[in-house]
Design a protein that fits this description.
By secondary structure, this protein is α+β, with helices and mostly antiparallel strands. The protein contains seven helices and eleven strands. The strands form three sheets. Strands 3-2-1-4-8 form a five-stranded mixed β-sheet. A three-stranded antiparallel β-sheet has the order 5-7-6. Strands 9-10-11 form a three-stranded antiparallel β-sheet, with helices on both faces.
Amino acid sequence: MANSNSFLCIDLGAGSVKIAAFEPNDAGGLTLKAFAQQPLGLPGAQDAVREGALKKALATLLSDPAFASKKINLCPPGYQVFSKFSKLPPVEAKKIAEIIQLDAQNNIPFPIEEVVWDHQVIGASSDSELEILLVAIKSELVDRVFNTVGALGKSVDLVDTPQTALCNAFRHNYSELGGCSMVLDIGAKSSNVLFFEDGKIFSRSINIGANAITQEFATEQKMRFPEAEQFKLEQGFVALGGAYQDPDNPQQAAVSKIARQVMTRLHIQVNQTIQSYKTQRKGGAP
């Protein structure tokens, strides 16, 4: 039987669903009691068929008695979440909420009545501008997940975004680090780059993920996505390039070259993000 204070955290990624069961401990922290994951395959990154794959994965995971808690914290996949850092002009405290509402209407790329949105105040710049993080997700996507989880006898306490969840985890575990730190979170469909410096954060989403390797390999080798994914996980690696000899297995050589090409594209985007952070945000080198 689950502890009455226990809860579940579920990461609804584009490539897999991860679930963890936690209980508060006497030291004031949390104890991880169980962890599991279920792959979604290519349907996990395709909205037209994602819901069916998600229902099947959640039903499988939540059938385990280790995940009997009724309370759930959810995190949707990064590609479904809109996020943007904004600077607001100095205004009276009573007008801040009004300015943030206006900023959300101007920047969120969907009608405001069709999304669930929120903000987090990051801090104030040297010229007294208020720095905020806007996040939004379409209401229909949230409703689908709530309905799916509800049908399995669970209730959702919290919906967080990948960027803020990772930010909270980093700050909790590495709060003593000084200077500028960078975290690169490589997902199935997209990747997140986060910077932490002097109590402030900045993040950028990059539309390159591990599925790109699988999809390009599957197309080149005329394989189905699940077969290509399995081969990538079992035998794939990033080719060294240059004068290094290719593997004897031609499929292994092919997937390693594709992995190198995708990682090179990601490396370029990460470098551009670092330069942008240093020049536009006046940040330090990570």
